[in-house]
TrEMBL record:
<protein>
    <submittedName>
        <fullName>Response regulator</fullName>
    </submittedName>
</protein>
<dbReference type="InterPro" id="IPR050595">
    <property type="entry name" value="Bact_response_regulator"/>
</dbReference>
<dbReference type="InterPro" id="IPR011006">
    <property type="entry name" value="CheY-like_superfamily"/>
</dbReference>
<dbReference type="Pfam" id="PF00072">
    <property type="entry name" value="Response_reg"/>
</dbReference>
<feature type="domain" description="Response regulatory">
    <location>
        <begin position="6"/>
        <end position="123"/>
    </location>
</feature>
<dbReference type="InterPro" id="IPR001789">
    <property type="entry name" value="Sig_transdc_resp-reg_receiver"/>
</dbReference>
<dbReference type="GO" id="GO:0000160">
    <property type="term" value="P:phosphorelay signal transduction system"/>
</dbReference>
<feature type="modified residue" description="4-aspartylphosphate">
    <location>
        <position position="55"/>
    </location>
</feature>
<keyword id="KW-0597">Phosphoprotein</keyword>
Length: 225
């Protein structure tokens, strides 16, 4: 059974949280409420989230300050943040949102379908990321067990191509998303593309490190040559 992704909804107004839950319920993921920036940061200490929907205007710690704290933490810095804000704010607010690390900036009132579609993309990428990490961990364990019995190369030969194919599919989806954002313009394109590239390049490096012979010291003959 595939574990559901968690989506963090941050807004100080209960009616806004209720509306977000109604819009995103169709995704059939786990929706977690936070009524303040402080409450959101507390939830992020122990839970892993696929994406954060963050209201800009909140009493006390506002959305920009909350995002800054999220991006400073090693554990949470790569979680995508979608800012939600009232429509009467100018371009400087949008710039502040992207500067704070948001991957998108949506004005209220927003199109429910558009918001759901954007969140769905990041949920899908998160699920692929989790699956790839789990499979890479499983493969590493099998390789270690196989080496103990002299079967490491054979074990890797069967699983590595499948892992590589799954990662290639995620890379293709990310490339399509980046292209779509680039065509629509705005700071979200650069921020989202950079986020996805970091995630996927890290996974690709981890997968390459699992290749048979990766990281082994060179032989005496090759060092002398």
């Amino acid at each position: 059974m595939v574990q559901k992704a968690k989506i963090l909804l941050v807004d100080d107004r209960p009616e806004n949280l209720l509306a977000l839950e109604a819009i995103l319920s169709a995704l059939d993921q786990t929706l977690v409420r936070a009524s303040s920036g402080e409450e959101a940061l507390k939830a992020l200490l122990t839970e892993d989230f696929a994406v954060i929907l963050l209201d800009v205007q909140m009493p006390g710690m506002d959305g920009f300050e909350t995002a800054a704290h999220i991006k400073r933490r090693e554990r949470t810095r790569d979680i995508p943040i979608i800012f939600l804000t009232a429509i009467n704010h100018g371009p400087h607010h949008t710039f502040r949102g992207y500067a704070a690390g948001a991957v998108d900036y949506i004005s209220k009132p927003f199109d429910p379908w558009v918001l759901r579609a954007k969140v769905s993309v990041f949920v899908d990428l998160h699920m692929k990321n989790v699956q790839l990490h789990e499979q890479a961990t499983l493969l590493r364990r099998e390789l270690e067990a196989g080496h103990a019995h002299g079967e490491g190369e054979q074990s890797a030969g069967g699983l590595l191509p499948e892992l590589s194919a799954r990662l290639a599919a995620a890379e293709e989806q990310a490339e399509a998303l980046s292209k779509e954002l680039a065509e629509s313009g705005g700071g979200a394109a650069v921020s989202t593309a950079a986020h996805l590239e970091r995630k996927l390049s890290g996974l690709r490096r981890a997968l390459d490190a699992l290749q048979p012979g990766a990281g082994e010291p060179k032989s005496v003959e090759s060092r002398q040559g």
